[in-house]
Structures are given as structure tokens and as C-alpha cells.
Amino acid sequence: xxxxxxxxxxxxxxxxxxxxxxxxxxxxxxxxxxxxxxxxxxxxxxxxxxxxxxxxxxxxxxxxxxxxxxxxxxxxxxxx
Amino acid sequence: xxxxxxxxxxxxxxxxxxxxxxxxxxxxxxxxxxxxxxxxxxxxxxxxxxxxxxxxxxxxxxxxxxxxxxxxxxxxxxxxxxxxxxxxxxxxxxxxxxxxxxxxxxxxxxxxxxxxxxxxxxxxxxxxxxxxxxxxxxxxxxxxxxxxxxxxxxxxxxxxxxxxxxxxxxxxxxxxxxxxxxxxxxxxxxxxxxxxxxxxxxxxxxxxxxxxxxxxxxxxxxxxxxxxxxxxxxxxxxxxxxxxxxxxxxxxxxxxxxxxxxxxxxxxxxxxxxxxxxxxxxxxxxxxxxxxxxxxxxxxxxxxxxxxxxxxxxxxxxxxxxxxxxxxxxxxxxxxxxxxxxxxxxxxxxxxxxxxxxxxxxxxxxxxxxxxxxxxxxxxxxxxxxxxxxxxxxxxxxxxxxxxxxxxxxxxxxxxxxxxxxxxxxxxx
Lengths: 80, 429
Description:
The complex is a heterodimer.
Chain A: H1 3-17, H2 26-32, H3 38-50, E1 54-58, E2 63-67
Antiparallel strand pairs in A: 1-2
Helix pairs in contact in A: 2-3
Chain B: H1 7-11, H2 20-30, H3 38-52, E1 72-73, E2 91-94, H4 104-117, E3 121-124, E4 131-134, H5 138-151, E5 167-168, H6 182-192, H7 194-198, E6 208-211, H8 220-223, E7 226-232, E8 237-238, H9 240-247, H10 268-271, E9 281-283, E10 288-290, H11 300-304, E11 309-310, E12 315-321, E13 335-341, H12 348-364, H13 371-378, H14 380-387, H15 420-426
Parallel strand pairs in B: 5-6, 6-7
Antiparallel strand pairs in B: 1-2, 2-4, 3-4, 7-12, 8-11, 9-10, 12-13
């Protein structure tokens, strides 16, 4: 699988799940592309964040990753 | 009184010890920071938390600087109308210099930068070792990051599921006990693993810490997933004349520490020989002898008589894995895995081990599972197989209670199957 195909698959998978869940562990991405080495998937996911397709959410101790713009955004933090 | 009435916090200013409440009030009064209400509102929200006995911080968020997946931690207050100065109060972790050596000029530059872009409040240093900048708003993050990296040549530290900022003791810069150059090792591995430090790579956090000797001044054995502790594999060097000088009172024990009261005459038998955990040291009144094979590097004799006893000359580090604070199974100390490794730049042998361990943890680790918990779950035997290491008695703390080393079926004659009837004929239930 090429990098472009992997990115497309990741986006499709996340969009398919977006109603139920907006943030994912890195390990969830490994499961989306089982044929690729984990380290390669990690690199692709991080590149997708730099490209503005995905975004990080961090509690400080753990990092989750989701589609950019999905879930609670910075601007909504003050809303009740 | 400040902006908020804080009677419970004010109690924390009483007594002889330094008070973080006084520090925050001092910053509020100084008033040079750009986020004017932040220190006062921080006191206000803390007082409310003391009253309510719950936190008023929400959990994390989407903030960061471009290209980095760590170093910035989103913090939002759940009472933003009551405390607008800390409604958005993000934390910034800054990679501290090795061994935390600073010039006053650099410290002033850091503080000026932070007053220009945040609350002015810092934590020197956080538990992982970073310089921690406490509290800023999202619009200040990119300018702060740009100025810090371009003008101060200073990088962010790690947070989230990343490699955390590596930390080392003073090492050979100040300490005669250091068995390798901890600063060089820390700096080298920090640069080697920049990607893992700045972008999430793992199921959870991962920490390296470098102690130059078993005194463990950065507590790597308790607080890092991969702990490097300096050691030696030859003999402790003994200066018999200096031993006699300690016994005769010409040299102060413990390098003069604890000299604030009269402890009486130094008693080598009571204060050194009888305290050796393995009983491997002997004093006959004129000569000190050490059975080096039995020494467990407790460091007590070297600490008490540093002029008489010195570490060996063939030095390196022991490598231990798996320490962590309590979340799942309780706090866990690291387990000795590599009894001795030479620690010389470019540290290729150590890096080879790091990468074997990371590959396994990335593959097998569950979400939010620390390496120590994975070793517990999959067995130390499996961990040794991954590390391509043979079991060694030095890995065993207490035989029979934590042997860790088990036979494989193919190593046992007849495997795991046996004739139970034949067994019962010889052994009653």
C-alpha cells in the first residue's frame, strides 16, 4: 500500500466512525493498516497532522488523534 | 487582600518553609506579566478547589505549536466567568539544559520571555525535569515558540504519548562518583530521538533518566522506564592511609556533612562495616578489605569515606527497565536488565537496545500501558528474549519469590506432559 492509499484509508475510516467517536489512540491507526509496519503508520499519522488533515488532543499524559475539526474544539471550551 | 478572598491558601504562607502562595502573590504584585489577572485568578480557583474539594481544571485539549505533538498541555478552567484570567491556562514544557546548569542571563531571558507571553509563573522544575511555564492563552503559543527557538535556541520538552524530556544528574561536571558522562549521554539521546520527543510514537509516556552512580540523584531507578545507573566492574580503590585518617579523626566522615551537632568519635565498625548490606567489607584495625564480588553498590562506604574509597576504573552503566508511578498495579521500581554496558559516545549499544524495546512495546503495548506493566503482563522472560539477553542471576532480587526466569517446554525433558498415574504412584495427593 502506498502512503497516499494509507492516508485515504485512514480518512475514510475516521469519517465512518466520526458520529460515534472523534478521538483515537495511535494504536487504533495501526489496526486500520495492518499490513504496514507500526513505525511507518506512526510517521504517516504525524505527517497528516502537519498537513492539517488530523489533529492532536492531549491530556498532558496521553495523546489522542482525530480528524481536524471533529469533536470539541478550542473555541468551544468556554461554552457551558 | 488581593482580588479574591483566600483564607485557606493564606494558611500556607505561615510557617518557616517557602510558600508557593507567597510566590504567586509576589508575581501578581510585580505586575510585569502580560496576562494581568492570571496569578490572582489562579489563587482564586485554587481556593475554590480547596472549598469544593474537587478540581476546577478541565482535562486537556487541542493546543500545540505547528509540527509538534507535545510540549504544550491544554488547560481550561471550568469556571471561566468567575476566573477569566485563567479561563485558558495552558502549560508549556521547556527542555531543561543537561543537569540544569544555567547562566543568570539565560534565566532572565526565559523569565522575560514568559512574562511577555504568559502569566510569568514558572515551576523550576517539573517532576520529569522540564522547566514548566504555567499558564498562557492559545494566541501566545506560536509567538512564544518562535522567540524561544529562534532567539534563545531553546526547544520544548515532551508530553503526552511521547518520549519525555530526558534528564541527568550533575555527572562528571561536579561529581567524583560519576561513572560515565551523564550529560553527554542525555544530550546525545535527546538529539537522536527528536522525532519521538516531539511527536507521539508510543502507547503512553516513556522516560529516560541518567544517574552517574548508584546514589541516584535523579532517581532513575524509581522514575524512568529506562534507567541508566553508573557502575564499575573492577574493584573499589582503597587508600589505606586515608582509611586510617578517617579512623583517627583527621578526615571528617561524609565529607563534613551532618557536622551540625556532635555525633561523637567516628566509629568505622558501627558506621560503615556493620551497615554493609552484604557484609562484604572488613576492618581489622589496620587494614580495610572488600570482597568486591559481593558488593551491591549501595554506595554507603564510598559516601562516608570518599577520600579513602573510590569507584573502580572500568566504568559504565547498569540498565534497568520498567519503573513507574502508581496507576494500575501500584508504584514499581525498575528491574535490572543489563548488568553492565560501556557508556561511550555515540552510545550505539544503548540505542540498539532502546529500539528493540520500543519496537516490542509499540507492537504489544496496550493503550496507556507503561513498559513496566507490559513486562509484568508478558513476563520478564519474554522481555529478555526481545532484548536478546540471557537470564542472569543478577536480575533476580529474591530467588523463589520473584525468579522471573522460567524453563521453556522444549528445554525440559518430556515437555509439560507427564504420566499422572506414574507420578501419583510415588506422590500421594
